[in-house]
Fold this sequence. Notes:
The chain has 597 residues and is of the alpha+beta class. The chain has 18 helices and 11 strands. It is found in: Cell membrane.
Amino acid sequence: MELKDGGQEDHERDSPIPTKDHIYDNQVQIGAPDAGHPGFGLLSTTRKYVKPMNFKDEVRAHRDLHTFLSQASILLDEKATTLDEVLRRMLGHVMKEGHESCDTEEIMNSLFTDAGGKECDVHLLSDTIQGVTSTSTGVRYQQSWLCILSTVRTLQRRHVCIARLERPQNWGENCCEARYVILILAPPRTKLLEAKTEDEFKQHLVIHQEQLAEANTEPVIEEVEDSDPRRGKPLQCRDFFRFGKGIYKDLRRRLPLYPSDFTDGIIGRDRTLLKYTTTAIFLYIIILLPAIAFGSLNDESTRGEIDVQKTIVGQSIGGVIYALFAGSPLVIPLTTAPLAIFISVIRGICDDYDLNFDAFYSCIGLWNSLFLILGGLFNVSLFMKLFKRSTEEVIALFISVAFVGDAVKGTIKIFQTYYHGPILATTNSTIVLQQITDILEKANNHTNVFENPNNNETVSVLAHLEKYVLLPETLVVCTRERPILCLLLMLGTLWFGYALYLLKRSPYLNDKIREVVSDCALPISVVVFSFIGSYLFFDIKLPVFSVHDQSIFTFPRFDKVSGMMVLSGAGLGFLLALLIFIDQNIVISLTHVPEHK
């Protein structure tokens, strides 16, 4: 028998798990049998303690666990009884799901080490992991499960297969009640260094240092994407006088991809109908809610000239036209807080100078459209080269703060309106005096009854006296429950939606259900708490937005537009075009940031 000194080193290099102090290693070497004693041999066994990983603190533990679980193959209620049959079934399942072709016999030979000679052949597992418990009498093995490791040179990645047997099996000492079998196959480790001595290692360092110095002296040629306005050559004045060239380049770049914008996710090998459906539902809710919120704000600021219905219809028309002709499926046009503030400013100007709001607003919209068309023809989007990332983030933060601020101000307004003590339901003094007079007359009539007592009538009056002396509910209003319920619904929607969004990080349910619930977190949260507010608390009348009976489409009276209104509309239209230009381009720029892809 001959034992090689390099056996331990080769085993550590090819082991699927690093052989450190906390790694279990079981190395088996068999000596050549003696001719006189065919059943005799030497067995070398090495055991090492595997230190349990702390999943709370160690990042590698989380990564390995997620990798194993996402790529694991599962066999349930396996009917095979022998270890060889179970392992062959597991290998076939791994090769089928992993789409890899390997020699099963070669892998089986690597899993076992044959001990014995010609007369007897005993299979011993080469590399295993088992659970042990230290007791006062020795070490006790956990015999319900067995983990088998092997290194396969033809594999490209690690494979894990877990089998649950139909009945516990007796596979020898320390494995008498095996029910779960875990098979881990891994490719061999690649040597990171080719240097065998310290001098060779130093020479490699010197060579790499020289190569790095040469690379630093050469100019870096950076590939520039034409669609990124902040990169490329410096901004020049003549770039703005190339009439329509920017639109021409956009069309030439996007037209070949235009059909795929509508078919991606629906047809082809990469279709994901479930993701497509959940995204559509999410976009519907995420577009509808701001339209209702800012439409209600516009209704209040314009006194019904622009209400929720007009906001939703206008946004629908603009969104459909943008989706069909813009060629930017990742950008969704929405009504934002700056636009709502701008509309309230226009209404204030109309009130101060006694102007017709519809005519003046239409004039501003026409000027705004003209400036935006000119900006597209003269490629004004090149000005985005002057915007830094910090500027974009500040403006995006301002828009986000405006969203949150409007929600907080709306809640405060509801509290100021409804959170009060009992008050009179009407300010009409005639109605109030009439009802109080009726109450006093009834009380006076029953006082006369007391002066001429009658037992039956006296009991009846005493039973209903409180009903007649208290003011009726139609005259007194106390609505403190409304703002409390509004606050609970708002915070509950936020909490429930965020909790559902975090469900994809939890171990509950399977990955498909977690993904669908996480994608539809906002719609589910809105629907659930809308049901709670409408049906579980149906006796509490919540404040709702106004719905007007006027026509959605009205033609403005341009006969009331004066020359001063046209000039003023040009100035305000330019400011509105500038606001839309900055808002739109910053959103597109943030969409193309690599961190958001």
